[in-house]
Design brief:
Length: 65
Amino acid sequence: MDQNRYMPASAVRTLCGVTDMTLWRWLNDPATAFPQPIYIRRRRYWREGEIREWWEARSREQIAA
């Protein structure tokens, strides 16, 4: 796993097991603190390390609740 590798939206959706609408909601809800993408030719990309860190933190929060 390369922490700095850029993942397209399709890979993020697969990793998190969510739809494009859920991804959109996370991006537009400041309470989720979802990492913001970079745009390359109108396509969204995220650093793999940021997504994995966010997902692990979210999982820990849900377990603690």
